[in-house]
Known about the structure:
Elements: H1 2-7, E1 10-15, E2 18-23, E3 28-35, E4 43-44, E5 50-51, H2 53-57, E6 60-63, E7 76-85, E8 88-95, H3 102-113, E9 118-125, E10 130-131, E11 143-144, E12 148-156, H4 163-180, H5 192-196, H6 203-217
Parallel strand pairs: 4-11, 5-12, 6-12
Antiparallel strand pairs: 1-9, 2-3, 3-8, 6-7, 7-8, 9-12, 10-11
Amino acid sequence: MAEEKKDNILRRQISGLQLRAQDEEQRMVEFVASTNSVDSYGTVLPVDKWDLSRYEKNGVIGYQHDIYWSDDPDNVIGRGEAFVDGDALVVRIFFEPADINPKAEKVFRKVLFGSINAVSVGFNPTAPGHWGDERKGENPDVYYFDGQELLEVSVVNVPSNPDAVKRSIAEERALHEQDRKPAEPKKEIESEEEAKAAEPDDINIRLTIARAKRQLAN
Length: 218
């Protein structure tokens, strides 16, 4: 169950933390987590469509996304505050004290030193997105989310695997292209033999039509 929950969550890796402020005494680092720019996955997360209500109630900062499948409480390395400032989603991280979580202390020091400089934002889409509309000045090769709920933020050693997001976008594109294709007219059934070769959910209807035609012909 935990593994399924993890796989259903989309993520954005932010490498090279865009630090806005840091306070070593307060063990705080503040950074820009997302903007309206096209990201490395070829998608846009509109800043004005972030839903932060869930995160405001439980602002979890994890390490390596281990909070989904590990029962080690030290994988929660701090608490976070998220807010929109202009055209940016800003996340303020408060790392746990060293005396209660040595892992948080080590990660905090590495972030300050610069040897760890990536975070991954976990979110759920809250509305169907769309491919860019050129008539609106959008890039047709870019996928635009129409709403997303922030779930958690994790500090990570290396970028999160983007395949899950790419796979989701690929599926959306396939459905989009399929919807644009005109529906092919169904071949008229002339005999019971043809009806039996049809799709299973159409067999009964098509058999009835074929039998009726045969009775009329007789």
